[in-house]
Specification:
Oligomer: single chain
Strand content: 25-35%
Structural class: alpha+beta
Radius of gyration: 23 Å
Largest sheet: 5 strands, mixed, barrel
Helix content: 25-40%
Order of helices and strands: HEEEEEEEEEHHEEEEEEEHHHHH
Shape: flat
Number of helices: 8
Length: 325
């Protein structure tokens, strides 16, 4: 996705530059800076210099390339194209790269790999119990190499490695979908990172680490059941059905759902190419725009549609600014 380039003709270049200029003019409070650029501040208000800033000859100067951010009196520079900086409680999407004793090692777009302990994993049967040697031997039946999973950042280990947890049914293995990679700064931390798009039958997970999952909707089953004998019979039935691989292969994702997955994934790719923040509202707007214009899924990655998205975003932000005034 990061290597996606646009081949624009002269007209499209002019339109895109005009849209981007409109976006920059509307975001004067969050202007972009490079190293040694002076950041305009009011020293009488008692400015606090944050990350990416320093004082030189009485002026606040940027020490990194990025975007100026202001929180009350604090002024700092948010770097672009930086690696993921994790925080406890972050929802992340990762890929299993190793099955080790009592743990899985995951790639999460961080400087170090993350660790998911077997004791921090919700078992498939949903029963809360101590992990045994049998569970350790069956780890590969839960997750194996190249599996995509969703988890939560639990803690930092002494060597800086992230420790994850997946103690809920909403976490775990992700199947029947696509994992997209984008810059972590495009995904803002919000209260909700799990989205169920009912009209499309899609589950969308915006990982704070820049890994985004778009896949077929899966019903989250409640593991709190009072009828223990019934639960055991159900588990035995599940075990029997898990052995019939031929029946599992007959469960296909409907064509319409697969098309919806590709359309939403391409909308995210367009946002990543243009460097726009990736939110659920903006994604749905781009999907609706492509449908209204009658644009096919593969045409969404073309230059013309990217220019249309930039113009649409400039129009949306200008209308929002007018309402505030």
């Amino acid at each position: 996705m990061r290597g996606m380039e646009l081949s624009l003709n002269q007209t499209q270049k002019v339109r895109l530059e005009k849209a981007l200029e409109s976006l920059d003019s509307g975001n004067s409070s969050t202007a972009s800076v490079t190293v040694a650029d002076i950041i305009p501040v009011n020293h009488e208000d008692g400015v606090l210099k944050g990350h990416g800033t320093t004082e030189h000859e009485g002026e606040v100067v940027a020490t990194v390339c990025g975007v100026i951010e202001r929180v009350n009196k604090l002024v700092y520079v948010r770097t672009l194209r930086a690696r993921y900086k994790p925080e406890v409680g972050d929802i992340i999407v990762g890929r299993v790269i190793e099955v080790a004793p009592k743990r899985w090692r995951l790639e999460i777009n961080f400087s170090q790999d993350a660790i998911l302990m077997l004791s921090s994993m919700n078992l498939p049967d949903g029963i809360q119990r101590r992990r045994t040697a049998v569970d350790e031997l069956n780890m590969r039946s839960i997750f194996e190499e190249n599996d995509v999973i969703c988890a939560e950042v639990r803690d930092f280990m002494r060597d800086g490695t992230l420790q994850l947890q997946a103690r809920s049914q909403k976490y775990g293995k992700l199947e029947k979908g696509q994992m997209l990679t984008t810059s972590p700064y495009l995904v803002k931390r919000r209260k909700q990172h799990f989205h169920h798009l009912e009209q499309y039958g899609i589950d969308l997970i915006l990982g704070c680490n820049g890994f985004i999952w778009v896949g077929e909707h899966v019903e989250v089953k409640d593991n709190m059941e009072e009828d223990e004998p019934g639960k055991l019979d159900l588990q035995n039935e599940k075990y029997k059905t898990s052995l019939s691989l031929e029946e599992q292969e007959q469960v296909y994702t409907p064509l319409e759902t697969r098309q919806n997955i590709c359309r939403i994934a391409n909308a995210i790719r367009v946002l990543s190419t243009l460097g726009f923040s990736i939110t659920i509202d903006v994604i749905l707007e781009i999907v609706d725009l492509s449908s209204d214009k009658g644009i096919d899924i593969h045409e969404m990655l073309g230059a013309e549609f990217c220019v249309l998205v930039a113009e649409k975003e400039a129009e949306r932000r200008s209308s929002t600014t007018r309402r505030k005034r």
